[in-house]
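New here. Your pick:
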Amino acid sequence: MSKVKKPYGMWVSELSAEMLGSALRFNDIRWGKDNTLVWIENRNGLGVVVSELAGDGMRDLCGAENARGGVGYGGGEFDVVGDRLVFAAKDGKLYTRTTGYNLPKPILPCFGQAAAPAISPDQQWVVFVHSDGQQDALAIVDTAGNMWPQKLVHGADFYMQPVWHPSGESLAWIEWDHPNMPWDGTQLRLGRLERTGGNTAVIFSIETIAGDANVPVWQPQFSPDGRMLSYIIQDGEWDSLVLYDLQQKTREVLVVGDGFHLAKPAWVQGNHEYGWTFDSQRIYYLRLENAFTTLWYVDINEKQHRQIDTSPYSYLHQLSVSGSERESLAMIASGPAVPDRIVRYDKGAFSVVRRSSMESIDPGYYAVQKPISWQAADGTRVHGIYYAPTHPAIFGEGLPPVIVNIHGGPTSQQYIRNHPTASYFTSRGYGWLEVNYRGSTGYGRSYQEALKARWGEIDTEDAIAGAQALVDQSQADPKRIAIMGGSAGGYTVLNALEADTQVFAAGIDLYGVSDLFALATDTHKFELHYTDSLVGPLPEAGTLYRQWSPITGADRIKAPVAVFQGSEDVVVPPNQSEVIVQALRRNGVPHLYKVYEGEGHGFRKAESIKDYLKETEVFLQKHMLFV
């Protein structure tokens, strides 16, 4: 069938807002008894634990409990050992059940929030991260729910990723203190567990295995035979995977990151990017390089590294290795034309366990992505990903309108993957540019730390320069470029609109930061001192806080702006959006302001996602396409 010509931005696409809103969102996946797979999927804002045993189909293991880790940004919703499942819920409780026929039972009272449950090898105990919003700790409770939970370890500001030694006699975990973020510097700690009278326990003989205030460590795991403690460390430009011999007290670097990373920044509790085979002879791991993800394994004895072909998947995460089959893996995977899936890898072949959407539309609606780069004023190569307008039956003529999208974090990254929001717009005739500005992860620690004390300055420069690079390469209509972003990305959107009124014809701000002073005093505990490194400590850096706060220069915004906000956002509260909207209203700038009730930092409900996509499309047509 020959393609027909239609104006950019007016193409009719089968990739609907309803389809994006109703898609499942996968958080994590683990192996249980008899190679049962257990995972978390979010359905219209409800976190559901799901299991599948070959030949027995899928079953929901919880319902209204709403499985969701509640510490920081969440994550670490559940653990499964054998047929014992423990999961954290939005109400702050821990629930347990088996993967057989029974209902979830609370084993933790509703006090504060819980995350990262780790079940002991004998299935009798659960260690978990607990926070009341002020103080964090590692705590322990029995899986029967008979005892009152008690603190095991406290004193640090944050805890993450507790894991049990196979003997059940030791624990390892990650901890760190303000003002650090977990990618700045953490400590891997190892402690022995002693059971005392009255069904209580204490941790003693605590030692630091790796890391310090300037060296981050992630994802500790014990080898199944109990001989080794493995971990990922960044003690230079890239990451390394290290084995620590628990008897000999020696270290061996097993994987040396040379131009690639082994882990993403620990924004959430539950990340796991590598895993041991049950016989302790092999480790499977992910490499993150130039926005692509690849799957590898290394034999512990031979030290041979081999890559596994993962086509058609370019983005893999939450890698989980079977506890009984050496060549069985599970993970969340996607590719440019393949929406998120839960997949298995068994003896050389991939199979699909669960699809996030129907996958009923022509793959030609998904754009083919390509990494691009441009030069910053200081000579640094800045990285991005470009999506051209793509449709199986329509083409445009001339230069397309483009949306420049800025990721959040700001310590984060966009990958070569399936990006439903980008495809929604590219299949309607927009180009789309993801800007992995200086400060993004994935390109070495120096690139990541370039943003320190310069947030609001160089991310804005890179966003503007990225738009100009597309114009220079004849890939964008210079009069029809919009900028869009959420959270830290929304902050960059507002600053870019103030910095150069000639580049962007419109802005889309999703729960963006507008006042750095308010952010430093009115955000959640996890990021309470984040601006100390991104901007500078107060009061010394007060001038920069004022200069780089969008509210300071809001009167310079001339382009139309759409602002979207969640009513229950505790990271960037609604007042951050309201002060910008007041300035837009005062200055007569065309704008749209929508608050979604019950939504937090990021939208989960199908109706919210559907509405914001449709409203954004209409807003761009009105204020950018037809002016």
Observations:
- The first strand starts at residue 4 and ends at 5.
- The two ends are 33 Å apart (CA to CA).
